[in-house]
Design goal:
This protein is an alpha+beta fold. Helix content is 39%, strand content 20%.
């Protein structure tokens, strides 16, 4: 590895290859996001509070201007007076949006090796503790093996989310399909699913945090950044949902996602 790195320009050695935020930790009452970074020849992690992301975002916007990737939507600041920053729902929402934000930036080669980006992702560098994957696979009889929301359709007064579904265990002709859903429909499905499990608290506890409703008085639901943030959050929710045994076998979920 060392021999390979010697022939590279300095910026190429510093380039960030990939980034993820698998979880967050509450330390002394403050939320720290665990950022895992893969560089050109090694991996590490850094702990970052939202305030550090906020400062870096301002620097990025000033430096990159027109080259800043449009899909890198930065989650807006929210005051603790109105919402607990340590609730599981809030932490998960912010984690997902910050992860998407960083991934969009490092996907642009010139930004992935920019000293502002590499500096932010190396400050406070710690050894990455690699945990073995549990290797758990979906049972052979599940009807959905993957889900994504690659696009949206903006109507006159609402937004439809294109949910692409895959069952890789079926013949190619029947292995892929899609459904179009409004946010309200997804939220109602989740509510119905939780109601069906009210007498089974252990199963209920395995579900991912529910999608959060946003009041139209406070948020423009037709704004591009709002739609993109909601798309990212809904995709994360559905990906986790289909990996939950009680959900992937529920008729409420399967019928909603178009399983015949």
């Amino acid at each position: 590895m060392e021999a390979e790195s010697k022939g590279l320009p300095p910026q190429e050695k510093q380039m960030i290859k990939s980034v993820s935020i698998p979880n967050a930790k509450v330390i002394d009452g403050n939320v720290h996001y665990v950022v895992q970074v893969q560089g050109a020849f090694n991996a590490w992690c850094v702990l970052k509070r939202y305030s550090a992301f906020e400062e870096a975002h301002k620097d990025f916007m000033d430096a990159f201007k027109t080259s800043f990737p449009s899909g890198a939507v930065f989650p807006p600041k929210k005051f603790k007076l109105f919402q607990s920053h340590t609730s599981p729902e809030f932490m998960e929402e912010r984690r997902v949006l910050l992860e998407n934000y960083l991934r969009k930036i490092v996907a642009v080669k010139n930004l992935a090796k920019h000293n502002l980006v590499t500096g932010f992702l190396t400050k406070g560098k710690q050894k990455l503790e690699v945990k073995e994957e549990d290797g758990e696979e979906l049972p052979d009889d599940v009807e959905i093996t993957d889900v994504s929301i690659p696009a949206t359709r903006i109507m006159s007064d609402h937004v439809l989310y294109q949910i692409d579904l895959v069952n890789e265990r079926k013949r190619k002709t029947y292995s892929k399909w899609c459904v179009l859903k409004r946010f309200t429909q997804i939220w109602e499905m989740d509510t119905k699913l939780r109601a069906s499990l009210v007498d089974d608290p252990d199963a209920l506890a395995t579900l991912p945090p529910a999608p959060q409703r946003k009041a139209k008085l406070l948020h423009d639901h037709m704004d591009h950044s709002f739609i993109e943030s909601r798309r990212i959050l809904l995709q994360n929710y559905l990906k986790k949902l289909i990996k939950t045994p009680v959900a992937i076998r529920s008729l409420i979920v399967l019928e909603f996602l178009g399983v015949q």
